[in-house]
Amino acid sequence: AMIDLINREIQPDILHFCGGETIETWASVLEKQPDRKIWQTIGVPIDDPQDESWKHRLDECWGRDELEHIVLDGSKSGLAGGTGATFPHQNVADHLGKDTANVIIAGGLKPDNIQDILAIAPWGGIDVSSGVESEKGIKSPDLIEALMSAIKKV
Asked: pTM, whole model, 2 decimals?
């Protein structure tokens, strides 16, 4: 019901889901609004290296026509993302066989680590937030510039 309301009232180009949404949820949205693009976040646990539940979720979502992008973010304590922490990007690239063109990476991306992370695989995009903040919620023009400069060197 909330998704239908958002679609009707706001009419976003992209719906970015950050939970355990199902294929049926995506299909329902697209049935009513076929022009919507859907992104799904999958949390890659950083506080339990033995937790490989992300692999099952990624495999479930992988190659689905309903999804334009999969967003991978460092998760901890049950949060799908928004932790500002990096996850083992190499493990993800190894699992996918480097077929990462529709994968957007998020979580702990900063000027001092972005080159190494981008060198791992040809990611489809990056989502940067806390990695360019001078303090919580305050973006730093200098850190943004440093990030962009580091990206251009890749």
From this structure: 0.89
